[in-house]
Structure formats: C-alpha cells, structure tokens
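Renewal narrative, Specific Aim 1. Our central claim is that a sequence can be written position by position from structural information alone. The example that follows is taken directly from our test logs and has not been curated for this report. It begins with the structure tokens describing the chain, in the order in which they were read.
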C-alpha cells in the first residue's frame, strides 16, 4: 500500500468487522480512484485522495475528521451510513459529482445544500428519519432521477421545483408529506411521478405544466381530497408569479405554452377515499388528450361528469367499490371495459345506459353491428351490480348445462362473449370469487381470456376475439370451466334434472349449486325457471361472421370439474 500504482481498494466482509487503519493511510495513494467497503474503521481518516472518483461504503459510517477535505474529482457517492456535515461542507463545490445514493441512512434528518450543481441522480430510498429537504435541491437543473421512496417522516420539500432534466420522481410511502411543491413551466422532461400511499392532501394546478408526464401514481393517497386545485390557466399564472416572488428567480417567464398531461395514457386514483366531488374541475379532455385508462375505484365519488363522454380514447374505466356512486353518463364510443363491481347505488338510468352501450359495442342489440375487436390475449369486460342479464339482449337457442362447453364452428368463427351472473342471496355476501375464463381450440393449450375477482349480486361480461390458426371446415372450441375460488363447506353433488330447460334434453346431469332459501342443500335448482338464488350462472355468446347471435346458458358449481359437450348443428353446417 502507499504507492501511486494503486487504483482501487475494496474492504468488504460478510460479517461485521473492525479494521485498524492509520488516519493518513491514503495520503500517498495519489491515483486511488475507487474505494469500496463495509467495515468499521476505528480511527477517523484525515485524508482522501483528490483523484478519488467512486466512494461506496455501507453498514458502518466512514469516519472522517474535520481536517479531511472532500475529493474534488468525486463522481459517485454511495453510502448507507453517513454524517452529511462532514462530507458536504459549506462553501465547497462538488462540480463533478453526478450520483449520490444514501439509501437506508438513519442519520439523515435534514438534507442540506449538496453543493453539486451537476448532480444527475439523488437516491434517498428509505431514509426513514429524513424530515426536510433544502430549498436548493429544487434548482438542480441536471437532476434526472430523484428517489425519496419510503422516507416516512418527510414533511418539507422545496416550495417550487425547477428541475428541467428530471425524468423520474418517487415519493411513494412518504406518509407524512402533505404538500406537493409548485411546478415550474419548463419541467417538460418528467415522465414518472409516484405518490402512492403518500400523505398528499392536494395537488397544485401547476402540475399541468408536466406535459411529458406519462405515469402518475396516486394509489392509496387516503388524505387526497383535491386533484389539480384551481385547474385553470389564469390561476396557474398567479401561482407562477407567486413562486417568482418567493424565489427571486429570473428564469420564470410569462408562460403561454401548452398545458395538460399530453402523454399520459393511465390515471390511477384508486383508493383515494377523500376524492368525492369536484371532478368536473379537472376531468377535461384537453388535460388528458390521450388517456385510455381511468381508475377511480374505492373513491367516494357520487357522480361522473358529463365531460367524460368527450374523452375520445378512453377504453378502460374502473369504478369498483365506489359505494356512493349514483350516476354515470353516456361514455365515449371508445370505451371497451367498465368495472362497476359493488356500485350498488347506481341509479336504473345509469345501468340501462351501460347495458345499451355495451349491447351496441357487441352488436347484440337489434339493428346493430359489432364495433369492438380484441385478440384473445387482450380481453375486455363489463361488471355491473345486477342479478340477471337484460331480457332484450338478442340470443339464439344454443344452450348447454355444465362447467365447460365444447362445440364445433366453421372456419370464419371470430368472437366470443361470456356472461357470468351471481345471484344476491348467499350466506356471505361480502365474499369475493377469483374467476377465470379459459378457451382451447382444436385440443390445443388452454388460454386465459380473463381473470378477475367478482362478487355476488353482480354480472360479469367478458368478450374477446378468437383467432383460429390453420382453420378447417370444422373446428372444436372449448370454453373451459369458469373457476371460482371460495372458502365453502358446501359439497358439490351431481343430480338429474327431470324438468327440461328450453333447448336442453331431459335427464341432463348438472352439479348441485349452493343451498337456497329453503335450505334444501341437496336439491339442484331448476335452470328453466330463471331463479338461481345460490351459486352462479354463465352464458357463452358466440359471434360468427354475422353479429353476435348465439348463447349458451350454463349453471355451474364451485370446485366441480364435470364437462358437458354439445355440438351445435347450425354452426357445424356453417
């Protein structure tokens, strides 16, 4: 040691180890560029080589004396235990420092001025005692990645962010952070902003300056009550002018450029239980011109604004467990999936609108042509609080009883629709089921069309495009059993149905469903009377080259795997 030929030193041990080194051990190592370790050095170091580029030290703090000057050429600093005041000294500039990683450091309570104007990455993941971040951090124009994930005590961020190069900002699980900074209009590079499970109460309208943002995570922000407060340009300009006075910064200009999330395809506000009203102030298509997914599940919303009909690219709307939701307007023509599971307060007009709209999409209403197309690996679906499918849906006489359905189709068969209805009278109405619909073609490998949790008192409609490779004149399609995974003490038994169902032969066997109100646990329900108080019913709807016109009705039993096969001669002839 002590020669100019040494370029790197690594002092690592799998166990907690103490190493005795002299205070000036590195003084003669003029060309040392890499120093890595995880051991405890008993004596404070008085010197670090000026040429040191990479410093990584974990488990124990690297003991530095007040005489030790920071290396001017340092590019990367990675430590899990550090006393910042001994490294980042006032008045000293780290002009070459680009990476700072201080993950899981418990000693940091306040992040000071880092004096690193060219910093590109700042990772403070799980610094659980960090409370405050210095105002100067908001001016780091070259910062690209900023990670504060798991800083559970964090309360104070810079009042305004002017981070022109920032592309990734993570504030997940910052549960005590209630105020989000104002955004400078020139922050165009930010693409990922994560605030999941944070304590944020409201988001400023200046967030609309993030025109490059494609991902905004706000799941489980239980305190969030206002999204995009005062979302209008005049108020946004007032916020910018206010920030200009606070910062005395000449980089603010009168901003007249575009605003809105011009690149965002998904907005997830799931489990933000504080969001109840005010959606019309921010749910504007101009703010979300390319939005395809909107998740408002488990929120307190009462109505969805009429403006949603103008979201021309919206395909997925998730509103499950919005138990106060009463009204849904007409949705845009682009809609393909709506999950309204357990939205029990929806008014009849909203339910009727949804049924009508999806009937038009699927082409199963009179005088309609199917609009939706999807590949088998990309399903669409509708889930609604209901106990039956509307009678005005156009069906054929293709019906079968069993846990799976097998039939022959011609070479031009294309689309498949599966209905699953759950009755409302059950032992435990809060119990959900994990359901899946699977399909195999000509004996091939089963493929899952859809898998989701569903609940009693709801209807589940799944549809997708079926592609037959090398089709022949006759192709066997099998829609495998819909699987429900529930805890139940009810045994499934087979019984013979002597009372015929329309289109189903007599003496057809089917599994017993759950106990009915009469508690006759061994008595199978009559499929012909339309009343299935327990268990659930599936119907499979098939689309040939003409619009959807064929339906199969199937009562099925949980944990029973009996298969019934049926050949539709009409489809076979086609």
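The sequence written for that structure reads:
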């Amino acid at each position: 040691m002590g020669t100019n030929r040494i370029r790197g030193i690594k002092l690592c041990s799998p166990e907690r180890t103490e190493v005795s080194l002299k205070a000036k051990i590195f003084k003669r190592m003029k060309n040392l560029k890499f120093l890595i370790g995880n051991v405890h050095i008993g004596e404070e170091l008085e010197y670090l080589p000026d040429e040191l580029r990479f410093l990584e030290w974990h488990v124990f703090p690297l003991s530095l004396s007040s005489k030790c000057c920071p290396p001017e050429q340092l590019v990367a600093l990675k430590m899990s235990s550090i006393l910042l005041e001994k490294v980042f000294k006032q008045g000293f500039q780290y002009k070459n420092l680009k990476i700072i990683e201080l993950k899981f450091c418990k000693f940091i309570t306040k992040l000071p001025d880092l004096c690193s104007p060219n910093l590109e990455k700042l990772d403070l993941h799980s610094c659980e005692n960090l409370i405050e971040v210095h105002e100067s951090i908001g001016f780091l124009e070259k910062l690209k990645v900023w990670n504060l994930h798991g800083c559970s005590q964090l309360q104070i961020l810079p009042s305004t962010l002017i981070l022109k190069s920032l592309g990734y900002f993570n504030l997940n699980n910052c549960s005590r952070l209630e105020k989000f900074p104002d955004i400078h209009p020139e922050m165009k590079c930010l693409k990922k902003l994560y605030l999941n499970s944070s304590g944020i109460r409201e988001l400023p309208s200046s967030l609309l300056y993030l025109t490059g943002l494609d991902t905004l995570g706000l799941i489980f922000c239980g305190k969030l009550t206002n999204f995009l407060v005062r979302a209008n340009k005049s108020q946004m300009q007032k916020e910018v002018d206010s920030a200009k006075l606070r910062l005395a910064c000449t980089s603010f200009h009168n901003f007249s450029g575009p605003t809105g999330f011009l690149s965002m395809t998904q907005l997830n506000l799931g489990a933000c239980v504080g969001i109840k009203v005010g959606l019309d102030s921010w749910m504007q298509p101009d703010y979300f011109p390319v939005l395809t997914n909107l998740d408002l599940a488990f929120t307190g919303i009462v109505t969805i604004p009429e403006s949603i009909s103008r979201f021309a690219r919206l395909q997925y709307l998730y509103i499950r467990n919005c138990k106060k939701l009463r009204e849904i307007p007409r949705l845009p023509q682009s809609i393909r999936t709506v999950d309204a599971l357990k939205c029990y307060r929806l008014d009849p007009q909203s339910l009727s609108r949804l049924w009508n709209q999806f009937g038009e999409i699927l082409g199963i209403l009179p005088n309609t042509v199917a609009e939706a197309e999807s590949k088998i690996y990309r399903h669409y679906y509708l889930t609604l609080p209901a106990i039956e499918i509307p009678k005005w849906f156009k069906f054929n006489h293709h019906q079968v009883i069993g846990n799976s359905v097998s039939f022959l189709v011609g070479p031009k068969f294309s689309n498949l629709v599966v209905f699953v209805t759950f009755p409302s009278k059950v032992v435990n109405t809060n119990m959900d089921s994990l359901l899946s619909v699977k399909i195999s073609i000509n004996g091939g490998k089963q493929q899952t069309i859809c898998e989701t949790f569903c609940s009693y008192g709801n209807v589940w409609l799944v549809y997708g495009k079926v592609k037959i490779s090398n089709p022949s004149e006759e192709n066997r399609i099998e829609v495998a059993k819909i699987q429900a995974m529930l805890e139940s003490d009810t045994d499934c038994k087979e019984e013979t149905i002597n009372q015929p169902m329309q289109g189903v032969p007599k003496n057809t066997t089917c599994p017993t469903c759950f106990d009915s109100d009469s508690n006759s646990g061994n008595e199978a329900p009559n499929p012909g009377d339309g009343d299935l108080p327990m268990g659930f019913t599936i119907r499979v709807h098939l689309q040939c080259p003409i619009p959807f016109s064929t339906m199969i009705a199937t009562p099925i039993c949980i944990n029973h795997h009996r298969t019934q096969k049926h050949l539709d001669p009409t489809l076979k002839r086609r």
